[in-house]
Amino acid sequence: MTASDKAGPEATRRAGPTHPVDAANTPPRTRTRSWGRVLIIAAAVAAMGIAAFKLMPPPTEDIPDALIGVWESDAPAYAGRPFEIEERTLLFRTGEGPYEYSIHPIRRVLSEADGSNTRYHVEYVNHGKPFEFVFTYMPGPAPSIRLEHQRDLVWKKTEAFR
Where are the domains of the chain? Predict the structure, then answer.
């Protein structure tokens, strides 16, 4: 009688396999997941999520009808250099010819009340880069605009320049 016969079936189950293991012919144990690969994939997914969030246009307001039109200043430095606000486009006159203006798509519009006036932040695209056109709109019998960086200049609505 052997020792395993005396211990019963319990002993043989605990002892493991009854056949010898051939280490030379056993394939190496492979891990089903490589933590490095998991981290790289997680980082790539996170980067794509951040990029999609950055590229997605933020919520925007519509351009009010009162702003749509051509605006010009009486200042000699800006004679013949009006700008035009359209529903989805901002145009700046760059020369005297009928086609000398730059056209920029509007990405977003934000506004904030400033007493009876409204301050606007219009983000537009120029050569693929975002720029901001900030001004205050003053309603009234003769509506006007004052640019954020040139508050002393008054821009008034006029006829289209195209």
Answer: 3-55, 69-158
CA–CA distance, 159 with 137 (Å, rounded to integer)? 18
User: Measuring CA to CA, which residue among 126, 137, 152, 148 is closest to residue 69?
Assistant: 137
Place of tokens 């144990």: 29
Q: What is the Cα–Cα distance from 4 to 17, expressed in whole angstroms?
A: 13
Question: CA angle 38-41-42, nearest 5°?
Answer: 85
**Assigned CATH class of 69-158:** mainly beta
Q: Which helix (H) or strand (E) holds 4?
A: helix 3-7
DSSP bridge partners of 104: 90
Tally helices (H) and strands (E) across the chain.
3, 8
pLDDT value for 27: 63
78-133 pLDDT tens trace: 888 899 999 999 999 888 777 788 999 999 999 999 899 999 999 999 998 999 99
Integer Cα distance of 78 and 93 in angstroms: 10
Is the pLDDT score of 32 beyond 60? Answer: no
Angle at the Cα of 89 from the Cα atoms of 87 and 94, rounded to 5 degrees: 135
